[in-house]
Amino acid sequence: MPPRLTSGLWVSAYLTRLRLADIAVYVTAKGDATAGAVVVKVATLDGQAQAFERRSDLMTGARQWMLLAEGPETEVDSILSRARGHDPDLWVIELEDRAGRTLLDQDGLSD
Q1: How confident is the model over 67-73, as a mean pLDDT?
Q2: Of 26, 12, 29, 37, whose CA–CA distance to 108 is shortest?
Q3: Which H or E run includes 12?
Q4: Could you tell me the pTM of the whole model?
Q5: 72 forms bridges with which residues in the sheet?
Q6: CB atoms < 10 A from the CB of 110, how many?
Q7: For residues 16 and 62, what is the distance between their CA atoms, to the nearest angstrom?
Q8: Ramachandran region of residue 84, left (φ > 0), alpha (ψ -120 to 50) or beta?
Q9: CATH number given to 7-96
Q10: Which whole number is the average pLDDT over 49-64?
Q11: What is the reported pLDDT for 59?
């Protein structure tokens, strides 16, 4: 199994990709630079949002991005606030994109 990137390095590379795609992005909670979990929230600027977290498949060990929450942005924000309260090492990356693009399905980000 190849070594995993530190959270801080992954976030830095992700931010660069988003900026190159002209997707507005903000780090609203900085987590542990080495091993903090990352949540990506995308607001579609119509009052709605989705949040994604990376989970491991217990059967295969594969890591993939899964939907954590979706609906009114205020409700998604509330869920993320509670998650951050339970895990102070959690990174929260917030995007603004009318089309809901996250780029999480692209090579290098999806696995």
Answers
A1: 97
A2: 12
A3: helix 7-20
A4: 0.91
A5: 48
A6: 12
A7: 25
A8: alpha
A9: 3.40.1530.20
A10: 86
A11: 79
Give Cα 68 distance to the centre of its chain.
Answer: 10
Identify whether the C-beta of residue 28 lies closer than 8 Å to the C-beta of residue 93. yes
Question: What is the pLDDT, as a whole number, of residue 3?
Answer: 62
- Using H for helix, E for strand and C for coil, what is the string for 90-110? CEEEEEECCCCCCCCCCCCCC
Residue 40 DSSP SS3 = strand
Structural domain boundaries in the chain: 7-96
Which tokens belong to 82?
Answer: 């509670």
pLDDT digits (tens, 9 = 90+) for 1-45: 456 789 999 999 999 999 999 999 999 999 999 989 999 999 999
Once rounded to an integer, what is the mean pLDDT over residues 39-54? 97
Torsion sign, CA atoms 14, 17, 20, 22: negative
